[in-house]
Amino acid sequence: MAQPARARKLRDYRNAAGYAFISPWLIGFILFSVIPMIVSLALAFTKYDILSPPEWIGIDNFKTMFTGDPRYWKSVSATLLFVFIAVPLRLLFALAVAILLNTRLKLAGLFRSAFYLPTLIGGSVAVAVMWRQLFGAQGAVNSLLTAVTGQTFQTSWITHPSTAIFSLVLLAVWQFGSAMLIFLAGLKQVPKELYEAVTVDGAGAWQRLRWITLPLLTPVIFFNLVMGIINGFKVFTEGMLVTGGGPFDKTLFYALYLYEKSFRYYEMGYGSAMAWVLLAVIACFTAALFATSRNWVHYESRGE
């Protein structure tokens, strides 16, 4: 009887030690995540401008959002356009570069560092200023086009209604380093024996990519796709620093409009309602990806 009691005390001691070690994170999570989320949910049903107490208005914020705010739908359309263009392009570009770096390339480590660098500095003010200079009326892009075509280009790509959002798409694609490294790690796990076997059978580079590389990379593709969509819906820095919402709200992303409503117009209740709608949309997209993943994501643990 003494042995089980001693084992139970040892287990309790280890559990207490474990909770003690994670308690700083738990306290921070509760104070800075759980409680603000609860407060935000409550404020979503109020009219609140920080200076005066919240006034309960029920679902009026959501009614205004969906039926009485045209700029809200402009922010939705701009965000959806950005997500559906930038996320696939970034994944394709990251995968292509990862496949290239997975070959016996000289100075591969240097290239990996160079390609990852834009991701580290992509959200900085310096990059925003650089991007505005590159795509401005007197920028390097226009100078290059003028030199190549012989015609004079003086269009400001970041302020023109038809090109502003695509300049931000290019900026997002340029920051492909994180996805590239994850793809590269996945490629390192593909058994070389499989490539050797299909090569003996006469498979070319395209067949090896189609039947070996891509199926075995589907878990990595799935992860990058989920993270890319989540980050795409939350895009803020590019629209704020590079275009400031753009001409005619063409780059007024959802998070940027939420920021304007909350901190420029002090409509905190409305901003909280927008935040919860964004959370619901991201949850729906993520759930849809997980629901369809069984049809195209292959895991070795399942024998698929």
Would you write up a description of this structure?
This protein has 304 residues and is mainly alpha-helical. It contains 13 helices and two strands; from the N terminus they run αββαααααααααααα. A two-stranded antiparallel sheet has the order 1-2. The longest helix is centred in the N-terminal third of the chain and has 42 residues, at 2-43.
Question: What are the defining features of this structure?
Answer:
304 residues, mainly alpha, 13 helices, 72% helix
Brief overview, please?
With 304 residues, the chain is mainly alpha-helical. Helices cover 72% and strands 1% of the residues. The longest helix has 42 residues.
- How many strand segments? 2
Low-confidence stretches: none
Give the termini distance in whole angstroms. Answer: 48 Å
* Mean pLDDT over the full residue set: 88
Structural class: mainly alpha
Strand-and-helix sequence, N→C? HEEHHHHHHHHHHHH
| Sheet of most strands | 2 strands, antiparallel
Given the structure, what is the number of helices? 13
Strand content is under 5%
Helix content, binned percent: over 70%
Radius of gyration: 25 Å
Output the strand order for the largest sheet. 1-2
Name the overall outline.
globular
